[in-house]
Design goal:
heterodimer; A: five-stranded mixed sheet; four-stranded antiparallel sheet; globular; B: mainly beta; seven-stranded mixed sheet; about 0% helix
């Protein structure tokens, strides 16, 4: 399984944008980039996914580098409820469908 | 639509015992996956079931097993419990087993403590 590298922790202030980076230098052309987050005492929650183009949804935006070796999850206006562990995961388009979670980035939001 | 439900939410067992955990997926979801989460190893994939068949398996010993019923509900069994099996066991469901895009919906987990 291709690996992802994320910072262990990040801190930001409420109502400011947050950029969470992820490196995946061994990504293959058949890997989707997924982001999940896990709030305290809850199961992980799907955030967003993409393949090559940047993606937006109601929760966040995903910016994918042109060479696809890195990506950034963007929370446009962080709230206290966004404090969580964010996981960047690669998933094959075909074949094994399991999600391989790394250690993730623990995001702290200051009021 | 109700989310993924897991029962029980908390469980305390003794070494050597066996345990069965239950997961009810979101209505209409036919795939159920199980994950183990520990502070040391993080989130690790156990197995996935689709239409009552195991489709994918992680690197766990044979003491960990599962099954899926015709209504898509799933159970996970751990026999001969060890202290290291203490963990949060998470169940996740999704609509299909393959395809270009899917979301997994996770339940709140079952917290298993082995003493």
């Amino acid at each position: 399984d291709a690996k992802t590298t994320q910072p262990n922790s990040m801190e930001s202030n409420e109502e400011e944008p947050v950029h969470l980076p992820c490196n995946h230098s061994t990504i293959s052309g058949t890997d989707y980039i997924h982001w999940y987050r896990q709030l305290p005492s809850q199961g992980p929650e799907y955030v967003i996914h993409g393949l090559t183009s940047n993606v937006n949804n109601r929760m966040a935006s995903l910016a994918i580098a042109e060479d696809r070796k890195s990506s950034t999850l963007i929370l446009h206006r962080a709230t206290l409820r966004d404090a969580a562990v964010y996981y960047c995961i690669l998933r094959l388009i075909q074949g094994a469908q399991k999600l391989v979670f790394g250690q993730g980035t623990r995001l702290t939001i200051n009021p | 639509k109700a989310g993924v439900t897991q029962t029980p939410r908390y469980l305390i067992k003794t070494r050597g015992q066996q345990v069965t955990l239950s997961c009810s997926p979101i209505s209409g979801h036919r795939s159920v996956s199980w994950y183990q989460q520990t502070p040391g190893q993080g989130l690790q994939f156990l197995f996935e079931y689709f239409s009552e068949t195991q489709r994918n398996k992680g690197n766990f010993p044979g003491r960990f097993s599962g099954r899926q019923f015709s209504n898509s509900r799933s159970e996970m069994n751990v026999s001969t419990l060890e202290l290291g099996d203490s963990a949060l066991y998470l169940c996740a469901s999704r609509t299909q087993i393959s395809g270009s895009a899917y979301e997994q919906y996770f339940g709140p987990g079952t917290r298993l403590t082995v003493t």
